[in-house]
Amino acid sequence: MRLLLLNVCLVLFISCEHSQSPDDSNAYNIEEVAADAGFMSYTEDAETGELNAPPPVPKKLNDAETANAKIIKTANLRFETSDLEKTQAQIMGVIQRYNGYVQSDNAGKNYTQHYHNLILRVPTKNFQDVLDGIAKGVTQFDEKTISQQDVTEEFIDIQARLKAKRALEDRYLSLLVKAKNVKEMLEIERELSKIREQIERAEGRLKYLGNKVSMSTLHIQFYKTIVETKTGVSYGNKLTNALKNGWNGITSFFIGLVSVWPFIILVILSVAILRRYAIKRKQ
């Protein structure tokens, strides 16, 4: 009986010791809670300190995803025209008809051409209609390039990463509410700041891709060749030009004489002296 009472007392004593242990036994750290929530697969970049989400498991696109493929369409067109203003008016009419707009407009000329460069944005669903409208009246394209870039996988990948980062953000927000001291709050807020920055970048990339997918881009250059005109010269013009050239030659000759007059005087004096000397010698 005494032995039983002794064992009961010992158990009660140990229980009291555990109940009086410091609050550290109830404390938590971010890593442990994140591990319990399944977020320890997130790794920290050694250089930037950013928290990187694990890459999503690649999956084969189903029929619905294939039908909703994200395709960026681009066209490059270059052709010659006989009337720049008429061609520009035609292109502007096509763009307005299919709800597009001009992103860039540049015109100029060089030694051989007057040219016009346009960058157009049109709804992707109207891409082919716009191409057909611009091609009307074009005899031949110097360049016609149509490209399609499939960004479906990148789109899905970013969406998956964004979803994971938002879930991690929610988890850290719940940890922030449970923080017991300032140190824990600062640590959680620092991680939240990193995650939110990554979320903003991912959202920006999604927005950029979405704009490129929904609005196709067309680079167009049309030009007009400068023709050199050769005018014939009449007989009267030739005679007039000859007289002018002759008179110019005479005036140039006299101007040349005036410029060398000291030498002319010197030559005349020398001849006169030599002649007088010769006459005296004969006498």
Descriptive keywords:
283 residues; 7 strands; 9 helices; elongated; disordered N terminus; alpha+beta; two-stranded antiparallel ribbon; 57% helix
Short note summarizing the structure:
This protein is an alpha+beta fold. The protein is 57% helix and 19% strand.
Describe this structure in words.
- The structure is a single chain.
- The chain is an alpha+beta fold.
- The chain has a domain at 63-225.
- The protein has nine helices and seven strands, in the order ααββαβαββαβααβαα.
- It has helices at residues 2-19, 30-36, 63-67, 84-97, 127-135, 152-178, 182-214, 235-259, 261-282; strands spanning 43-44, 51-52, 71-80, 101-109, 113-123, 141-150, 215-225.
- A five-stranded mixed β-sheet has the order 4-5-7-3-6. A two-stranded antiparallel sheet has the order 1-2.
- β1 and β2 (51-52) form a beta hairpin.
- α6 runs antiparallel to α7 (182-214).
- The longest helix is centred in the last third of the chain and has 33 residues, at 182-214.
- It is elongated.
Instruction: Give the overall average pLDDT.
Output: 78
Report strand %.
15-25%
Strand order of the largest sheet: 4-5-7-3-6
Largest sheet: 5 strands, mixed
Look at the helices and sheets and give the structural class: alpha+beta
- DSSP summary, beta strand count: 7
Radius of gyration: 46 Å
Helical content stands at: 55-70%
Contiguous uncertain segments of 5+ residues: 1-28, 33-42, 46-51
Number of helical regions: 9
H/E order of the elements?
HHEEHEHEEHEHHEHH
Shape field: elongated
| Beginning-to-end CA distance, first to last residue | 184 Å
